[in-house]
Design goal:
This protein is an alpha+beta fold. The chain is built from eleven helices and twelve strands. The structure holds adenosine-5'-diphosphate (ADP) and magnesium ion. The site of adenosine-5'-diphosphate has 21 residues, from strand 3, strand 4 and strand 6.
């Protein structure tokens, strides 16, 4: 399964489902055409997902062309000059084999062959960011802790392979079914050299600053413990069912106040250095918040590690 060559054509079944949307957009009466907001929602539901850097499409891989194929997720990048980033992502993900990490399936080129695409297993429920708000009433706290445990297990494995994820967030945790989640989006993942404890970022890029530990923001150094900090933020999102009103950027801006451009970053760093942390969400039990706070120790060496977190969550779940 992992090494099969992808040589058939990729058919996008959603195109036929899109016919309806296309005709709505082309309604003769301008007042009856949908707003872009509605189009985005529609596309999301039909299986076309947008992240920060890439686009993920739902495709049918059917090399025999007889409808015996399977659904796969295909990631391509928005702009051509990011294609070397996708190559790096592919070289990372194809080395990873774990229950809680999204499975690599192969690569393909678009017509002309200039752009490479990444083919992964398709996880029908999308990311926790879409899944949790939608299914809140059917998901109890024990379930949330099971997701936390599975993420830690995937992260422990990733660390054992000397990788740092650098983009751990609810939007990058994919849902296979109600009792299984997997880590996805290895777009920012770096491997640390055997003789180093951290990865130093050289190129300036869009970073998920509200998920980053102080040493990442200040010194651009990424340790395994920096992923633990981001896990704390991810667990915060999970325990609040990815409520948009209480997303990490919202919580920060509400408590520190809005400002423009570069200033926000400086204020974030200042607040964190002075010991400011996001408060416990109403729906989060005290004992879980204690674990979140152990992920948010200022110095990386004082943070809890994924192994101890696994033990804590296993204990909660028994
Ligand atoms: P980016 O690097 O642009 O953030 P991601 O890999 O995070 O790209 O993918 C963007 C979104 O696409 C995710 O947040 C998720 O909703 C959806 N997605 C990504 N991979 C899959 C997959 N294998 N199955 C289903 N949905 C996926
Ligand atoms: Mg992403």
């Amino acid at each position: 399964e992992r090494f099969y060559e992808v040589c058939g054509t990729l058919v996008t079944p959603s195109i036929s489902k899109l016919a309806d949307l296309i005709s709505q957009c082309m309604n003769y009466d301008p007042k009856k055409r949908p707003f872009f907001r509605a189009i985005v929602r529609e596309l999301d539901e039909k299986g076309i997902y947008h992240g920060n850097f890439g686009m993920v499409e739902l495709c049918l891989y059917d090399p025999k062309g007889d409808q015996t194929g399977e659904l796969v997720a295909v990631k391509s990048l928005k702009t051509e000059n990011e294609s070397s980033n996708l190559r790096r992502e592919i070289s990372t993900i194809r080395n990873l084999y774990h229950e809680n990490i999204v499975k690599y399936k192969g690569i393909c080129n678009d017509e002309g062959g200039a752009n490479i695409k990444l083919i992964m297993e398709y996880l029908p429920a999308g990311s926790l960011k879409e899944y949790l708000p939608r299914n809140k009433s059917n998901i109890d706290q024990k379930r949330l802790l099971l997701y936390a445990l599975q993420i830690c297990q995937g992260m422990e494995y990733l660390g054992s392979q000397n990788y740092i994820h650098r983009d751990l967030a609810a939007r990058n945790i994919l849902v296979e079914n109600e009792s299984l989640v997997k880590i996805g989006d290895f777009g920012l993942t770096k491997s640390i050299k055997d003789d180093k404890e951290y990865y130093k970022v050289t190129e300036e890029q869009d970073s998920p600053v509200y998920w980053y530990a102080p040493e990442c923001l200040i010194n651009r150094k990424f340790y395994k413990a920096s992923d633990v900090w981001s896990f704390g933020v991810t667990l915060y999102e999970i325990m609040s069912y990815c409520d948009r009103e209480n997303s990490p950027p919202q919580v920060f801006l509400k408590s520190i106040g809005r400002s423009h451009g570069q200033m926000t970053m400086t204020r974030l760093v200042d607040a964190l250095e002075k010991g400011w942390r996001m408060p416990r969400p109403d729906s989060c039990p005290e004992m879980v918040y204690t674990q979140i706070r152990r992920c948010w120790s200022h110095a990386p060496e004082n943070r809890v590690d994924f192994n101890s977190l696994i033990k804590e969550f296993e204990f909660f779940l028994t």
